[in-house]
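Narrative of accomplishments. A recurring question from our advisory board has been how the design workflow behaves on a single, concrete structure rather than in aggregate. To address it, we present the structure tokens for one chain from the evaluation set, followed by the sequence designed for it. No filtering or post-editing was applied between the two.
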């Protein structure tokens, strides 16, 4: 079985390859994240890596730290870094990924249930799950770049894990999800036997389940896709 660390390392390598190949003029182009350019997405990924590395170092050193000082500070830092040159953002992305990789083993050695604050006094997040949290950030936002990498490029095991995540957090009216290219299915909510069934290729389903716009290959037996507002 592939370890979370090696899965993240491979995903990070793919992201960095895309970022390095992206012409400088294309960094200012809109991403699939409303209001963000590709530069914003890559700046966010750089700062996210730095923040998660700081969380794990703080736990290791007995000085727990929140991920961000505030949501406003997070957003402001992204906006500022996004104005830097592509070379500067790429350098931060590479350094941040390396900094996080250097302390990922801390997460594996933590007692189950260890948490950290996203912001001071804010939502608690699983420190044990940092490798997986970062994997979601890397894979989803890599696809958000709209630069030739999409959810259909996610490894099947990654797409399945993301669908499991999103099914677990969904609390709206129940429905079934069935992949057409893998022997896999999920229950969102508590669906009855006659509840709607959403079907499509694995990657497209996983992309839609994150809250992104569904591709035409994703369909529902009712003709209308369920709302994911309860996710």
């Amino acid at each position: 079985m592939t370890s979370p660390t090696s899965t993240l390392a491979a995903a990070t390598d793919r992201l960095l390859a895309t970022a390095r190949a992206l012409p400088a003029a294309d960094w200012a182009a809109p991403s699939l994240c409303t209001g963000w350019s590709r530069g914003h997405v890559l700046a966010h990924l750089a700062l996210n890596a730095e923040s998660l590395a700081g969380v794990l170092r703080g736990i290791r050193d007995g000085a727990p730290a929140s991920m961000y000082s505030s949501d406003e500070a997070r957003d402001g830092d992204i906006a500022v870094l996004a104005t830097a040159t592509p070379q500067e953002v790429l350098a931060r992305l590479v350094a941040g990924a390396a900094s996080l990789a250097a302390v990922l083993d801390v997460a594996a050695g933590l007692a189950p249930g260890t948490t950290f604050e996203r912001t001071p006094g804010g939502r608690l997040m699983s420190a044990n799950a940092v490798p997986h949290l970062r994997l979601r950030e890397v894979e989803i936002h890599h696809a958000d770049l709209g630069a030739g990498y999409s959810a259909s490029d996610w490894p099947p095991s990654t797409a399945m894990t993301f669908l499991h995540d999103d099914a677990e957090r969904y609390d709206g009216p129940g429905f079934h999800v069935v992949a057409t290219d893998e022997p896999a299915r999920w229950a969102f909510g508590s669906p009855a036997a006659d509840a709607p069934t959403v079907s499509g290729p694995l990657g497209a389903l996983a992309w839609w389940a994150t809250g992104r716009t569904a591709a035409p290959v994703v369909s529902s037996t009712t003709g209308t896709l369920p709302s994911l507002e309860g996710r």
